[in-house]
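quick q for whoever's on today - can somebody do inverse folding on this one?? i tried earlier but teh output was garbage lol. tokens:
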């Protein structure tokens, strides 16, 4: 619907209501409607699911068409990210938001900072989704509001050509609303609890839900020790629960990301149920660390399983957890991925201990032998020491190629002493092209960084505190923050405008006409940034 069509529709509605609506202006109503293109979270979920499905198909046709996101812990952070993307690249296409359970636990829980162990309130997850989309909607309203003001100025000057150009810009406005991949952890309980929370997340706007195969009440961060997985059928029940939530709410093409932590998880809480040899439960149990026993060696409380006519005792720890055989992580990971895709998941997430294209690609190749179009969401995690990892990868590659590495100490490659070396330069180039290369060679459709804005907030605050509370004083803020905002065209230098002051003034004028008491007059200090 074009701007003019919307005005015409409202004019008919107002005229049809009789004299009582004479004070309502059709163009003002049309502007407000255009500034709120997505009335509900479900409207957003349906819109963004379609985008994600189109992007997945584009990646299948060309792996260079991978997608990216950054984790955002507040609506303002997500908003500024999308405003920046539009400013620098002209479009939001193939750029998403990621909602990290880690950051909710660390930053958004009423209990205060928590570890990533699903201890935060489950309601904080849909609450952050709703908050992110509230801020993205406001970014639309602010940007369109600026265009409406430009249109009014062009009309006042009688410049019909400029007015037509601006009207076309309004009609072709690209929204800041993009897909969110939202972390539901291990489902926060049984499949019914997973279904109920998934509904809340979808109603808030999530088109893609990521769920992992850890035990929900023993959940750990994927880059910490002590991870405990569940049998496949337990995980598949939760995948089905999420799918039913999508279907019930009319988001038929909602996306499920199945995450496996099996590569680093050496424990399970239960032995899988098995009906016959070779079924899914039996295959899960085959990875258990067992010893063959006979009746004379049984101890009190021993748990036994039978396989191939033998009696086996799984290794059980004092915590009542069962241990997998060492070295089985990759095989378990591949099986997790295949069974997830065969039972309703759309994308995979393999949590690895390092960013290594060969390792990731090797697993994806095995998965694709069964599911040819399998593709990953991958965590470009701040938990990795990227500098050290890639310098060591280059070091090892040079050793394999017979190059002289005598000038380098592999264990000290993080040292600043190596920053100007050829090895460091090659490592940095591998980091720079990691997303492109792994999209082509390891089946990674979506690259995300889970916690980047957690780290950027800490770093920028540290730098400001050092300068402002030190010798620089106010210059520490002006030079490092405000002057750079102005020169780099950071929109929120006009912070009153960013917070919605101009939108509020527009509404005052709609509601009160000439009686409106507006904030944006000549004495508003934001006018000092008119040239910014």
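ok took a stab at it. sequence:
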């Amino acid at each position: 619907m074009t701007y003019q069509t919307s005005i015409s529709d409202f004019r008919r509605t107002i005229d049809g209501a009789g004299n009582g609506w004479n004070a309502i202006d059709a163009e003002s109503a049309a502007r407000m409607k255009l500034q709120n293109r997505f009335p509900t979270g479900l409207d957003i979920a349906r819109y963004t699911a379609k985008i994600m499905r189109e992007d997945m198909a584009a990646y299948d046709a060309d792996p260079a068409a991978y997608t990216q996101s950054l984790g955002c812990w507040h609506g303002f952070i997500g908003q500024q990210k999308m405003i920046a993307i539009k400013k620098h690249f002209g479009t939001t296409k193939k750029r998403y938001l990621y909602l990290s359970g880690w950051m909710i636990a660390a930053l958004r829980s009423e209990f205060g900072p928590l570890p990533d162990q699903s201890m935060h309130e489950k309601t904080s997850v849909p609450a952050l989704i709703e908050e992110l989309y509230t801020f993205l909607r406001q970014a639309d309203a602010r940007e369109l509001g600026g265009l409406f003001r430009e249109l009014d100025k062009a009309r006042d000057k009688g410049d019909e050509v400029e007015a037509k150009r601006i009207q076309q810009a309004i009609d072709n406005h690209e929204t800041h609303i993009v897909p969110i991949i939202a972390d539901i952890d291990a489902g926060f309980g049984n499949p019914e609890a997973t279904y109920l929370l998934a509904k809340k997340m979808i109603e808030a706007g999530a088109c893609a839900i990521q769920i992992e195969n850890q035990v929900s009440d023993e959940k750990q961060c994927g880059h910490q020790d002590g991870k405990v997985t569940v049998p496949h059928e337990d995980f598949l029940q939760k995948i089905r629960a999420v799918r039913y939530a999508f279907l019930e709410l009319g988001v038929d093409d909602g996306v499920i990301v199945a995450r496996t932590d099996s590569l680093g998880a050496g424990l399970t809480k239960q032995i899988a149920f098995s009906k016959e040899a070779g079924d899914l439960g039996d295959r899960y149990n085959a990875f258990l660390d067992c010893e063959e026993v006979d009746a004379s060696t049984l101890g009190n409380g021993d748990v036994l399983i039978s396989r191939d006519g033998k009696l086996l005792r799984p290794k059980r720890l004092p915590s009542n957890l069962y241990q997998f055989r060492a070295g089985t992580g990759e095989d378990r990971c591949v099986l997790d991925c295949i069974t997830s895709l065969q039972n309703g998941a759309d994308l995979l997430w393999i949590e690895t201990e390092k960013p290594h294209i060969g390792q990731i690609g090797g697993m994806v190749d095995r998965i694709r032998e069964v599911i040819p179009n399998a593709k990953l969401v991958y965590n470009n995690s701040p938990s990795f020491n990227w500098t050290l990892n890639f310098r060591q990868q280059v070091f090892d590659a040079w050793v394999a190629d017979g190059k002289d590495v005598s000038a380098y100490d592999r264990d000290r490659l993080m040292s600043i002493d190596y920053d100007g070396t050829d090895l460091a330069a090659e490592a940095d180039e591998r980091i720079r092209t990691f997303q492109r290369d792994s999209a082509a060679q390891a089946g990674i459709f979506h690259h995300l960084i889970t916690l980047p804005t957690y780290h950027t907030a800490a770093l920028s605050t540290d730098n400001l505190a050092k300068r402002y509370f030190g010798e620089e004083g106010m210059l520490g803020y002006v030079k490092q923050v405000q002057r750079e905002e102005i020169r780099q065209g950071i929109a929120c230098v006009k912070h009153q405008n960013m917070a919605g002051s101009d939108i509020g003034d527009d509404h005052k004028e709609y509601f009160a006409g000439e009686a409106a008491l507006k904030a944006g007059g000549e004495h508003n200090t934001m006018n000092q940034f008119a040239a910014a």
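fwiw The mean pLDDT is 92. also The CA atoms of residues 273 and 281 lie 5 Å apart. so keep that in mind when u check it
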